[in-house]
Amino acid sequence: MSAGAASVRRAPTKSVWLLLISLLLSLALHQAYLTRAYPDAVYMDSLRLLSQLSEWQRGQLSSLEFWNQGQHRGLVFQAALLANVEWFSLDPLLANRMTGFAILALSGWLGFAASGAGGKEKATPLRLSLACLIPLLLFSWAGFELLTLDLGWPLWGKNLLVVAYFALHACSLRRALSGEGVAPGRLVLLTVTGVCLVLLIAMGWSYAFVGAVLGVQMLVFAIGPASSRRRIWSAWPPAAGLIVALLVYVAIGSNSGTSAGMSLAQTVSSLLRALALLPDALGSTWIGLETVRALGISRDWLWVFGMASLLLAGFGVLGRWRRGLASNSLLPLYLLAYGVLTAFSICVARGGTDPAAVGASRYYMDFVLFQVGMLWLLAEQADESPAGHGRLAAATYVLACVLVLAGQLLTYRQEWKAAPYRKEAFAAMNRALLAGVPDAAAAQLLQAPLEDARLGAKVMRERYLGAFVSLRPARSCDPAGIRFLSGWHQPEPGGVWMSGKARLLIPACACAFEAKAYVPSDFGKRRLRLSDPFQPAFVHIDLPAGATTGIRLPGGSSSRAVEINIDRIVIPARDLAGGRDVRELGAFWSQSAFACGVGAGGGTR
Which residues are listed as membrane-spanning (predicted)? Predict the structure, then answer.
């Protein structure tokens, strides 16, 4: 093997190792930040979704209504919340730690692709530097809001799936351009996954997602080689599927009553204002907005950085066009399109009320993809341009990386200092939830409308979720352990009928056992006699007709079977005029539970 061949084989290995070090370092910093800020509170949209999840599980909210979340129609939030509730009793800190692994997967994918390792593109020092910078950018604490929100990991997971689709679609386009053709199976996969992304996962980002795919495909079709245009048509079925899915998405949303019409003049004014704010939004990826405020830096610098991003991206796209759109991976073009379309939509939606809001940290995760695409094209331009132009492009790339790195390091430093204060804020949020969200100030702290915050806190209290999990009774007090042994009829909605004599198994629990017994008005009054091994004598309880009577037995350190006798039974078919029921009915039992203090006790069955 020649020395040159050995060098070619070693370069990708070196790239992979350096990328791996960058990934692990970024993940470690992320976990350290979470330990310091300790985001263990449920807040913002999670509270509204939690109350809706409870309604959906009880059958009080249809699946379509559960899917139709206004501007963010889909099921990715709901699925993530359901999994956290059912498996981890709604542990927000665990969810936030999982966010790091979603970012890790996306950073690794983009870093490996940008480095050129393992592909047809050449791995160079500039490409390697970009690969190592990508994890630092994606893990940046400039996006702290979604690093400390329990719904952050499905959002980053959404980005991972979107970028995966971009990569697969880009590969198909390049195959079509080269004349290799696109396999029917791949076209079907792209079509089906695209529809699922639009309707279930991408939510309000569906417009930018579809726009990016169509934009790149139309660009390749419009300025690509004329001889390849016929071949590109073979890659249009997935695009058609995206268009149909987006039309369905919009049509269902237009019937939800959430949209408001605007005049033509208002629309034009809104679009122009959004264009003017676009640099502010993209500039927030160079240095976090919170850092700009904390350090007293003029917000005009965000506009300057944003304009630099747009100009450098344009420079990179122009260079790619001259070399051939498909000369290298098309993925950075998708990242540019998705990032700028997302930023523009945020400027349209938020710019009218608060111009500074367009750079909020919650939007960083999407805007940063534009920055990655821009730096990717600059590195590529520097590597593949002629000597003179290449040196200029390399200097431009290095300067951009130095400025981005400086801004990010300032952001990391500022957020590390702010983390203890954020920890205090999360602790205050949990106190507000434990108090039932007493007032509007508590709701404002939780960043949720008062009604949504109270309903979410109520669900958490009743089901011992999140901040209430430490108040849950011992597992032995689970009402699911209560067993109706002999002498009971089939359960009915709301409870179960006992016959003249029945046995009830009560599991070990220090809390008192409680239940309700109801006797219909036409049954007549009667009397229960309970034989409880933990009681020195029989317990007698009178049950008046037409009323519900509470039954309470003390808790115990072991399970026991309680025998229940009733002095009268009724067979409706025999004893009541018009009755058809031939069962022996004593009393109707309901709400069997353990009274363990908080909220609804240990639950009911």
Answer: 94-114, 126-144, 185-202, 233-252, 301-321, 333-351, 363-379, 391-412
Domains and CATH numbers, the chain: 12-42+90-255+273-425 (no CATH), 476-595 (2.60.120.260)
- Condensed to tens digits (0 to 9), the pLDDT of residues 174-218 reads 888 777 777 888 899 999 999 999 999 999 999 999 999 999 999
Give strand pairing partners of 589: 496, 517
Are the C-beta atoms of 158 and 205 separated by less than 8 Å? yes
- CA distances (Å), 535 to each of 477, 498, 530, 560, in order? 19, 22, 9, 11
Q: Coil, strand or helix: which one is 274?
A: helix
Amino acid sitting at position 128: L
Per DSSP, the three-state class of 398 is helix
What are 83-108's pLDDT values in tens digits?
A: 999 999 999 999 999 999 999 999 99
Helices (H), 140-263: 144-147, 152-178, 184-196, 206-223, 229-232, 236-254
Provide the whole-model pTM.
0.80
- Dihedral angle over CA of 397, 401, 403, 404, nearest 10: 130
In the chain, the percentage of residues whose pLDDT exceeds 70 is 90
Residues in the chain: 605
